[in-house]
Amino acid sequence: MKVTVVGAGAVGASCAEYIAMKNFASEVVILDIKENFAEGKAMDLMQTASLNSFDTKIIGSTNDYKKTVDSEIAVITSGIPRKPGMTREELIGINAGIVKSVAEQLLKFSPEVILIIVSNPMDTMTYLTHTVTGLPKNRIIGMGGALDSARFKYRISEALACPISDVDGMVIGGHSDKGMIPLTRLATRNSVRVSEFLSEDRLLKVLNDTKVGGATLTSMLGTSAWYAPGAAVSSLVHAIACDQKKIFPCSSFLDGEYGLSDLCIGVPVVLGRNGIEEIVEVDLTKKELLSLKESADAVKKTNDLLLELSI
Measured by CB atoms within 10 angstroms of the end CB, which terminus of the chain is less buried, N or C? Predict the structure, then answer.
């Protein structure tokens, strides 16, 4: 199993580290446009191998896509990160051109590769990758919902003062502060609905804290978060590489599912060796479906900016 991570910044490096530590990949290639940056990150990570007991080989390269040949999974983290006060949508002008070029280069050397998109605005970058590559929809996956759901479970465990391993919950919709939909109605602690333990007001706070999870960290750190995004990506890669058939909410191209078409947005999917093996249609309430439609409308407005930019 060969995995490529494009972008050696904090998210890309964390992703490569977590993949290596799980020890399921034979090789991880890290690419970056900055001279010797990916090489340095790879060397630093390889020097942890004996300490962290992994045998995965990590290779760094300055923009040499030949090193990525025959990659089975590739992660695109390239682009500028958010700064305090920025929305994910404001990044579209710069990041769209980067993601387009990266996807084309990856496919040149690995025509069967499965692509995982991390670059923001993530749903629109996932949609862009569909339009410029023409790949089947099972092979293009947006990371957002997996990260948002991890943040949701963190907030639930915080509110319950319980181990996070007790908690299950899912976030669907667009990967944006206003667009994401934490499904508080379906969240559970050891199969018991969280609503049995928490008041409506406390659940509402959990919901709102989840929706601004990325912005909260950006304001604290001065840039986008990296540990949780890297872990989220590594979990998706692991599920695909090891054919785990796990369900994650991911940004997926919809063609009638949930009554939506011609966009990528977060919905639960089964991940296995072929990438997205099934889109799971959860029985949503009318209110939840309306929220999903409103989120989809916002994503489509951002997608429309791609036409204005002629990308």
Answer: C
* Whether CATH 3.40.50.720 fits 2-144: yes
What are the sequence ranges of the domains in the chain?
2-144, 145-308
Cα angle vertex 249, ends 243, 255, to 5°?
Answer: 95
Give the separation between CA 123 and CA 281, rounded to whole angstroms: 19
| CATH class given for the domain over 145-308 | alpha beta
Q: What b/e readout covers 235-274, taking b as 16+ CB neighbours within 10 angstroms?
A: bbbbbbbbeeeeebbbbbbbeeebebeebbbbbbbbbbee
Euclidean distance between the first and final Cα of the chain, in Å? 32
Alpha helices in the chain (DSSP H): 10-22, 37-46, 49-52, 92-109, 122-133, 144-160, 200-211, 213-221, 227-241, 286-308
Contact 23, 49 (CB under 8 A): no
Active-site amino acid positions:
175
Strands 180-182 and 171-173, bridge-based pairing: antiparallel
Do residues 251 and 232 touch, judged by C-beta distance below 8 A?
no
Single-letter code of the amino acid located at 138:
N
Rounded Cα distance between 235 and 93, Å, is 29
Please tell me the pTM assigned to this model. Answer: 0.94
